[in-house]
Amino acid sequence: MAASVAPRMTASILILLAAFQLTGATVVAGESAHDHFIHERSEQLREEAQDLARAPVIDQAKLADLHKRYEELEKDMFDFTKGEKDVCPVHQMKMTAQDARIAYGLLARDPQPDPDTRAWKFPFARNWIEGGCVISNLPKTGRVFLCLKCVEAEKAWIEQHKK
Q1: What is the model's pTM?
Q2: H, E, C per residue of 76-117
Q3: Mean of the pLDDT values across residues 58-73?
């Protein structure tokens, strides 16, 4: 029996394509293994959605599969253990994976290092995730690796840079 089909360019496929473009835009800038992992999956799904959109009719089973895989990608976006090794590249210590709160909005906090300082000195110090300014129906928790030596190094950096 043939898979059910719908007229070309349904609202679902347009929404899915827009979501893939937004997903790609949010992760392209980073250079971590996690960002690379998410970006590669996002690009693959986006290309499949574009191919599906170009078809004379849209296979609903393929569309449903793309939606399911996109929802999995959305969950993985906040799992910063995906694609990462469990050994801190700075301190060569095994890290622990833990659930982390996602903080949304404009955050006021202690002095913060620039991204290069964080990456070179304590890349796995945060036990929370910066979710960005957009607050909507997004996850409240994610997953991160935590290196205890990174936590100590970040605390020392903040103390040294307080006014």
Answers
A1: 0.64
A2: HHCECCCCCCCECCCCCCECEEEEEEEEECCCCCCCCCCHHH
A3: 86
